[in-house]
Amino acid sequence: MVLDGRLCYGGDYNPEQWPAEVWKQDVELMRQARVTLVTVGVFAWSRLEPAPGRYTFDWLDQVLDLLHAGGIRVALATPTASPPPWFSLAHPDALPVTADGVRLHHGSRDTYCAAAPAYRAAARRITGLLAERYADHPALALWHVHNEYGTTCHCHHAEAGFRRWLRDRYRDLDALNDAWTTSFWSQHHSDWAQVSTPRATQYLPNPGQVLDFRRYWSDELLAAYVEQRNLLRAATPGVPVTTNYVLGDWVPVDHARWAAEVDLVAIDHYPSDAGPAAEEQIALAADLARGWARHGARHHARATDGDLPGARGSWLLMESAPNLIYTPGRMHTREPGRMARHSLAYVARGSRGAMFFQWRAPRGGAELFHSALVPHAGPDSRIFREAVELGGMLDRLAEVDAGVVEAPVAIAWDAASGWALQQRALPSDRIHHHTEVAVAHRALRRAGYACDPVLPGDPLTGYALLVLPALYLADDDTAAWVRDHVHGGGHVVIGYLSGVADEHARIRLGGYPGAYRDVLGVRVEEFHLLADGEEVPLTGGGTGRFWAETVRVAGAEPVDAYAAGVLAGQPAVTRHRYGDGVAWYVSTRPDEGTYQRLLDEAARAAGASPTCPDAPPGVEAVRRRSPEASWLFLLNHTASAQRVPTAGIDLLTGAVVEDAVTLPAGGVAVVRERAGA
Ligand code: GLA
């Protein structure tokens, strides 16, 4: 446990932005809100080391002592995401270079190249000092390394690192040339010195080079993290170490792979919408975090030490916004009540609490209007009152931390497939692995199923159904993973653009989807791309969008077919018995209702059932279960009261639920279910 039996509640605390008088008031307010954990020091490097080698830890000593006296634990951060101005001046070679060759300058945060030796050495130094000084501080609960690893660089340090990484992976240049298909456009390398990072170039870049650069850079950033983690672990073997993941398609980090190196998966999550779309985004982000945690726990160096929280799918929401959410053009308000309901949505899906950015709204600086638990208006405000209310709720929910989220469906997620489908000159720039995962996840959620993201190769025991949405890349092991699963009796739904390419993003020949033709009993000859807004009718009554294909059946039975256009009469959805299992193929993007019905049918046929079949539409139901108890989270996202049949005790109100709970509009219940429920 991070917090000895309590859920984590609090956020980024930046006392360095305030005079010492405010610190005492902060601790008082934190106690009032029942805050249990704050992240301190994330961007404090220039206040800890104002000049090279001159350290001023005294203020941090005082802050940690004050927090400890107030009963608040600390996630102590290493400040390496924001080197001070003196560092950049002394080490201009450690400033980052863009793909266009422009060297960025100090003035924001993250102005470093993670591969620059001077930066890495400075990061190790300040981390080592923090570890030494605070190893025994009683407030220390968690180490928080850096902040949101996600920068990229194309400087000569990065280029040298890339070459080293490639030599390691391919050993000889012939293998690299083959993997990158350098026979195309005269790109054959005859010396390692010719190999560069994918900088700005005349026309389309080499897809193999771009993909490998993203893989390399994720590993380079991971190495930077691991250096710090090792120092912290050596000083405090009993204190867990994490780093907060930033989410987004642009992020050059393979979060699942990183999960084996953190003691607790932690994500920052800022939905791009303040309304109902936020609820879908929250569910997906939370499920991804849980999937990464479970995947990581299996490969974790401490996996043999016993029960790692990640194995149970535990993770932590490290940052979220209490109120205003950045959306393009203007910020959006989180309506009253949403902060609590949304926070509990993360907890329902395995988070060990709810943390925010940030505690107190700053009076200046680049993010001066970012929302905070103590807003500019001060504690006499709706937001702070909601913060106090949320603290009380989380206090009453501590026991759910023991529960594992129940999910009968697995959905494949893979960073590299996402990166490969971001390349240019693909048949459609509308189809991305992550979008397809989100669309399938939304359909499953609306049909009432919880699902666990899994990575190729992960064990599938316990999952009734596996869904592969545009899992573009498949090496031979991935192909065998799916084949063996279905042959052994598993059910799978495979979407278009899955298994089309190998691990180097080269096409698997002989008809699409090369990796899964035998399992699916189909052979796809051609793609037919639809224009934006265009729909193709299906004989089952729905429509297909974005993508369609010429599907030739080779053993599969058609389930739905194209009803018009060049593909009229040809299969759109097929089903194939393979070994003891069943494999569905979906060759277009069905409209939402059709996709929901299709996945529901596939899930039921596989033996799965929704979490709470009687929950009315708009009420999200998620169950966490431990060997001793089960908890049903019910989140009413609608604007009217909703009644849900269940029995037990509502932990939020303490009320006994005899046969049904009535949730007020926008309300939440967390029912410890009566045994046998
Ligand atoms: C990220 C960062 C924070 C802050 C927020 C703003 O999550 O970690 O420092 O910039 O975004 O949304």
Can you walk me through this structure?
The protein is an alpha/beta fold. Among the domains are: 263-396, no CATH class; 409-605, Class I glutamine amidotransferase (GATase) domain (Rossmann fold, 3-Layer(aba) Sandwich); 619-673, Golgi alpha-mannosidase II (Immunoglobulin-like). It is built from 17 helices and 31 strands. A nine-stranded parallel sheet has the order 5-4-3-2-1-11-8-7-6. The protein is globular. Alpha-D-galactopyranose binds next to loops.
Q: What is the CATH superfamily label of one domain?
A: Class I glutamine amidotransferase (GATase) domain
Helical content band: 25-40%
Helix count, per DSSP? 17
CATH topology of one domain: Rossmann fold
Give the strand order of the largest sheet, numbering strands 1, 2, ... along the chain.
Answer: 5-4-3-2-1-11-8-7-6
Main beta-sheet strand count, sense and barrel state: 9 strands, parallel
What ligand species are in this complex? Answer: alpha-D-galactopyranose
Gross morphology: globular
What structural category characterises the helix and strand content?
alpha/beta
Radius of gyration: 26 Å
Write the layout of secondary structure elements.
Layout: E1 8-13, H1 20-32, E2 37-40, H2 45-48, H3 58-69, E3 73-77, H4 85-90, H5 117-134, E4 140-144, H6 156-170, H7 173-179, H8 207-235, E5 241-242, E6 244-245, H9 255-258, E7 266-268, H10 276-299, E8 315-319, E9 325-327, E10 330-332, H11 338-348, E11 351-356, H12 382-396, E12 404-405, E13 409-412, H13 415-420, H14 433-446, E14 451-454, E15 465-468, H15 476-487, E16 491-495, H16 517-520, E17 522-529, E18 535-537, E19 543-545, E20 547-553, E21 557-561, E22 571-578, E23 581-586, E24 589-590, H17 592-605, E25 619-625, E26 630-636, E27 642-645, E28 648-650, E29 656-657, E30 660-663, E31 668-673
Parallel strand pairs: 1-2, 1-11, 2-3, 3-4, 4-5, 6-7, 7-8, 8-11, 13-14, 13-15, 15-16, 16-23
Antiparallel strand pairs: 9-10, 12-25, 17-20, 18-19, 19-24, 21-22, 22-23, 25-26, 26-31, 27-30, 28-29, 28-31
The structure holds alpha-D-galactopyranose (GLA).
Residues 147-148, 268, 270, 319, 357, 367, 370 line the site of alpha-D-galactopyranose.
